[in-house]
UniProtKB/TrEMBL annotation:
This is BTB domain-containing protein. InterPro entries: BTB/POZ_dom, SKP1/BTB/POZ_sf. SUPFAM superfamilies: POZ domain. Residues 1-22 are annotated as: Disordered. Residues 28-95 form the BTB domain. It comes from Mycena indigotica.
Length: 317
């Protein structure tokens, strides 16, 4: 519809500044105004459905329109920026398109303060946790802090496991700003868990209960060593394999969570380097060495990660 179709004497109100057409809906009956003066024209019933705070607010008497020609909508001044409000509404408000910018973890923290702590939108907890979980791989230490802030124990545990991949116990690691709400006790617990997992890694490497994964191979065509396929050869294996595990435990002492990533390129490169330099099998035959390497990788993939994960799980509090 063009401007020329409007009635000749209609009031010419300036259009409100909004971030999306959806926030300028003519049927809206309340306006949220951000700290940077952007208006969000919304529906009270929708806000009231997710937030008991809004529901109570809207039961209070509303101001009367001073002029019959002007629709006076109640206004709620918010202390958050329009970017934060837009991201917050995009999580759950009907019809809101995805924001044009990706939410940072710092913005998400403000959104969560708003949604969970300020407006008590309990029905959004699953959505909020999903958003926070997106940052687990990139910033586990901050996710741990935010999860603890909201008493989300399961997510805090997930984050603590991810933190095992970070060298938290080195002097260069600094706490992110998200930790400002947490007590020193939380940091102590996380570090204790980190240290406990390193100790479990070292202890597991010393155990002898490994079923080395030979593949049946009657005899090496190069050096004539007999491979029985039942766990032994005439060369033996246990000492070099345990030496390899011990070196792995040493390499991952500050990042024990990385020790379970047996499929990663860096893990396999490390095994190959140790295998070829410090912890090789007791033979120079290239064919036998290759068989040992295959058996070593296979043993690690099939037995090492799960046993390590089980150990880490028992230490979780
Ligand atoms: Zn051989």
């Amino acid at each position: 519809m063009s401007d020329s179709s409007e009635a000749p004497n209609a009031p010419q109100a300036a259009p409100p500044r909004t971030t999306s057409e959806i926030f300028n809906d003519p049927s809206a009956d309340v306006i949220l105004i951000s700290s940077d003066q952007v208006e969000f024209h919304l529906h009270r019933v929708v806000l009231g459905l997710v937030s008991p705070i809004f529901r109570t607010m809207f039961t209070l008497p509303q101001p009367q329109a001073p002029d019959a020609h002007v629709k006076a909508l109640p206004k709620v001044r918010m202390s958050e920026s329009s970017a934060v409000l837009e991201h917050m509404l995009a999580l759950w408000y009907p019809g809101v398109p995805p924001p044009t910018t990706t939410m940072t973890l710092a913005e998400l923290e403000v959104v969560l303060e708003l949604v969970i702590l300020k407006y008590d939108m309990q029905s959004l907890i699953t959505i909020a946790q999903g958003q926070l979980r997106n940052f687990l791989a990139s910033d586990a230490l901050a996710v741990f802090a935010v999860a603890m802030r909201h008493s989300w124990q399961d997510l805090a545990k997930e984050a603590a496991k991810e933190c095992l991949k970070l060298p938290l116990r080195t002097s260069t690691y600094a706490l992110p700003a998200s930790w400002k709400h947490l007590s020193p006790h939380s940091l102590h617990r996380l570090l204790q868990y980190h240290i406990g997992c390193h100790e479990a890694l070292t202890a597991l490497a010393k155990t002898s209960a490994w079923d080395y994964d030979y593949v049946g191979w009657p005899q090496c065509p190069n050096c004539s060593v007999k491979w029985t396929g039942s766990g032994t050869t005439t060369l033996g294996t246990k000492s070099f394999f345990k030496s390899l595990l011990s070196k792995l435990a040493q390499e991952y002492q500050y990042t024990p969570g990385r020790a379970v990533e047996v499929g990663s390129l860096s893990f396999q490169e490390l095994v190959l380097r140790l295998f070829n330099t410090e912890c090789g099998p007791p033979t120079t035959c290239y064919q036998c060495r290759y068989r040992y390497y295959q058996a070593t990788i296979s043993t690690l993939q099939h037995q090492w990660p799960q046993r390590l994960i089980d150990e880490f799980e028992t230490l979780m509090v």
